[in-house]
Amino acid sequence: MRYDLVPMDRSHLEGVLAIERACFRQPWSEQVFVDALYNDTVSLIVAQAEDGRVLGYAALSVILDEGSLDKIAVDPACRRQGVGEELLKVFLRFGRANLAFLTLEVRA
After folding, report:
1. Among 4, 55, 56, 58, who pairs with 72 as Cys (CB 3.0-4.6 Å)?
2. 47 in helix, strand or coil?
3. What is the DSSP track for 4-37?
4. Better-predicted residue by pLDDT, 108 or 77
């Protein structure tokens, strides 16, 4: 499967929301994602297939030298193909280069 990791924009919103609803019992609302897109402390990336489909996404919040990986999700049909790992690696590299701390928020 071929895909690129790109910054999220509004064109990705429908695909991200579909994955969000499929993956989480208490999904973020559309408004939360829209607000995050325009928040300078939040970075959102998506794994985008060649056909434009969103395969997964991740969200990182940064305040000063501390980061929090707030979301990472992959379309259930695309799991176990390295998409989540690649999304995670982007923010891990950023964290190593720019942050004192990087945490992952996990909910059961």
Report:
1. 58
2. strand
3. EEEE--GGGHHHHHHHHHHH-SSPPPHHHHHHHH
4. 77
Burial group, residue 29, by CB count within 10 angstroms (0-12, 13-18, 19+): exposed
pLDDT cut 90: percent of the chain above it: 94
CATH dotted code for 3-104: 3.40.630.30
Sheet harboring 3-7: ordered strands across?
3-7, 42-49, 54-63, 66-74, 101-104
